[in-house]
Design a protein that fits this description.
By secondary structure, the protein is mainly alpha-helical. The chain contains 14 helices and 8 strands.
């Protein structure tokens, strides 16, 4: 495939926006981390419990709808059109759950349990809520206001034609790093709601729709391998062994996400992981014959879905979206992801590529599985 698939173009823009958003949120918000210390912000030390740092998706699938009046677990899922990591959000200091699940063997709260923000959660809401306009304006300055408006219009022209109950963010991936299917009880968004969506939510809606169609096609053909696995791991493997330690650099996703992906793929016989050479501690991965079939199906489905969309939604609509995404190329997106000095990403290796599909895990919702 000479040009990047539509799903990869969407992913790169979405991941870059999210990381830029997360970097600024981390800079502004009192927070704590497991490996990179705490930042209590100016004058905030000792005034509240700083929540454990989480990514933008946790605003979309949880904190956007939680308020002091309370929202039930059932209603939260209906409003967000996706599930969230409720026990994580409780443990990380963003929400209170009534009845409380702390210390219980079963951490999943019942559907009628009520969620309310903590003081730290309310602080995070204020920071997150303000940042969508901030990052969009930065993109207008970097890429051009007309280019951003053109991309927004192209995304909206497609989104208004979807009839599924799509969330405004990438759902947390399920077993096998697969997409969560919409619940029949969840309402589809109205055109009025869609008209108000920020750029990053429009990107997510289109990418979720693409992933759902991809995974339906993958399961129909037999392997049932998710777009996340296909785009980020299967894509960069082949018949020749690739060092496992090189996969994060090649794919743009974290080593933790790579480990989860390889465990699933190896268990099902799509990938073999073995020492690079006799007696070596360096592990290398290679696609098996079954894995080669998965790779072929991945390439075929990308082409098939885009052609199907051109027929279903309009040749001009899909072509306009692809053209609108061209200015937001990988190298320019990476330039805008430079972290602040106090960001945890400043302490780790700078990414060289962006994922071809977001790896949103239960660990905090980061788009590269961090």
């Amino acid at each position: 495939m000479d040009e990047l698939p539509l799903s990869a173009l969407l992913s790169q823009a979405l991941v870059a926006f999210t990381i830029e958003f997360d970097n600024e949120a981390e800079h502004r918000m009192p927070h704590s981390t497991t490996d990179y210390g705490s930042n209590y912000g100016a004058g905030a030390a000792g005034t509240l419990r700083a929540p454990w740092l989480a990514s933008m998706v946790m605003w979309w699938n949880c904190m956007r709808f939680v308020n002091d009046g309370g929202v039930t677990v059932r209603e939260l899922a209906r409003l967000a059109r996706t599930a969230t990591n409720l026990d994580g959000m409780r443990r990380w200091g963003y929400i209170r759950i009534s009845p409380d699940t702390a210390g219980k063997a079963k951490k999943t709260p019942r559907p009628d349990a009520v969620l309310r923000p903590t003081a730290g959660g309310r602080m995070a809401q204020e920071v997150w809520r303000a940042l969508f306009d901030v990052i969009e304006k930065r993109w207008e300055e970097r890429f051009g206001k007309d280019e951003v408006q053109r991309l927004r219009a192209a995304l909206r022209a497609l989104v208004v034609q979807f009839d599924e109950a799509l969330p405004d963010c990438m759902p947390i991936l399920h077993y096998g790093l697969a997409m969560q299917k919409p619940d029949a009880a969840w309402p589809a968004a109205t055109k009025a709601e869609t008209a108000k969506l920020p750029l990053v939510a429009l990107l997510a809606r289109v990418l979720v729709a693409f992933a759902l169609e991809f995974e339906r096609g993958s399961f129909e053909r037999g392997p049932g391998v998710s777009l996340a696995l296909s785009a980020n791991v299967v894509r960069v493997l082949g018949e020749d062994p690739v060092r496992v330690r090189d996969l994060p650099m090649l794919s743009g996703v974290s080593k933790e996400a790579i480990a989860m992906a390889l465990t699933f793929l190896e268990k099902r016989g799509y990938v073999e992981v073995q020492p690079e050479s006799a007696g070596s501690r360096v592990k290398a991965a290679v696609l098996t014959a079954k894995g080669q079939i998965v790779r072929k199906i991945y390439d075929e489905l990308l082409t098939t879905i885009e052609a199907r969309w051109r027929s279903r939604f309009g040749e001009d609509v899909v072509r306009a979206l692809r053209e609108a995404l061209q200015p937001f190329n990988e190298s320019r997106l990476l330039e805008g992801m430079k972290p602040n000095a106090d960001n945890w990403r400043a302490a780790v290796k700078k990414p060289e590529v962006l994922p071809h599909y977001p790896m949103v895990l239960h660990r905090g919702g980061y788009p590269d599985g961090s």
